[in-house]
Amino acid sequence: EGGHRVPFIARWPGKIKAGSTSDQTVCLTDLMATASAITEAKLPNNSAEDSYNILPALLGQDIEPIRKYTLHQTMSLALAIRSGDWKYLDHKGSGGNNYNRGGEWGMKQFALPEKAPGARGQLYNLRTDPGETTNLYLEKPEIVEELKAKLEEFKKSGRSVPRT
């Protein structure tokens, strides 16, 4: 999950309780909708397509998960989708690092062997395999189909957050 599992730290005296934590999945894209909520500004329908308001989580309110699905974009513009413990990629490879590059600074030495060579994509259980070393694409077709369909829906609509 290189670059996708990082701490989010917020400080707002009098609003955010010091030392509080949350298990909510949040993204930097959420700052737009959150700033909009804080300032009570309405976001235009064509902006912040993947931004959720995380203010309730920041304020420590007991809420349901903010989002059911999280989109991730790689350096090569490929998309991945996460739901709960599951992460699906509709392509092979990391989408970012070029493991074929050799030389002293090359990434080839870090490339992992393909463990599901017949798979057309990738599926990982991030709770049991945060290093994404075991591709479960062929073992969990029902999860692959759900996440694949949702990813395609988001691609077609151009957004993962409905606005009214």
TrEMBL record:
SUPFAM superfamilies in alphabetical order: Alkaline phosphatase-like
Signal sequence interval, chain numbering: none
Classification via PANTHER family: N-ACETYLGALACTOSAMINE-6-O-SULFATASE, SULFATASE
Protein name: Uncharacterized protein
Gene source species: marine metagenome
Phylogenetic lineage: unclassified sequences, metagenomes, ecological metagenomes
